[in-house]
Write a structure and sequence with these properties.
The protein is an all-alpha fold. The protein has one domain: Orthogonal Bundle (Hypothetical protein af1432). It has nine helices and no strands.
């Protein structure tokens, strides 16, 4: 599956710009993680791009619809990673890609939420400011803090290091992601 094909699949299932942008941010973080951990950049990126593709149309069946489509296309490794991108679904994380999508998803969304309330958005953001908001339970309340911690643990990183890494990726793509 090419990135173009993955993007077409995402767009066929996801209409809102905000969810498409979330998909793109997680795609960029996953691609950067692949570089860092020696993974397949294309597979990691497509996993990030498609992880929530069915959420908008099929919230009660998420992620089963996109997982089924990917399995039908023979993309079993990507399908498996997406099937387990939330630890409470009890899908075993067998590969580093399976672990990285857990590390990337919730935390990337949280960091974007922090950036959107700052006057300078992602520019100049520090780990300390993200951690301060992370401790504020009412801020981005739907983000499960335990899931964020588990993601960092799964890939063997300190939470602060993962936050710094994601901030750097988002800063490098701030214009495209409208974080300026």
């Amino acid at each position: 599956m090419t990135r173009q094909e993955a993007q077409e699949l995402l767009h066929s299932m996801t209409e809102t710009e905000s969810l498409r942008r979330h998909a793109r941010t997680v795609e960029l973080v996953m691609e950067a993680l692949a570089d860092k951990v020696g993974g397949d950049k294309e597979a990691y990126a497509i996993t990030g791009l498609l992880h929530d593709a069915d959420y908008e149309q099929y919230p009660d069946q998420h992620p089963n619809i996109i997982v089924d489509k990917l399995n039908q296309l023979g993309k079993h490794d990507i399908a498996h990673a997406i099937a387990g991108h939330y630890t409470k679904w009890n899908v075993p994380r067998e590969s580093m890609m399976d672990k990285c999508i857990v590390a990337a998803d919730e935390l990337t969304g949280f960091i974007v939420a922090v950036a959107l309330i700052r006057p300078t958005k992602i520019e100049g953001m520090k780990v300390k400011s993200v951690m301060k908001k992370f401790k504020t339970k009412t801020f981005a309340a739907k983000v499960e803090r335990d899931e964020v911690r588990k993601g960092a643990e799964l890939i063997g990183w300190e939470l602060g290091d993962l936050i710094a890494f994601i901030i750097q990726v988002l800063q490098a793509n701030k214009e495209e992601l409208l974080l300026v």
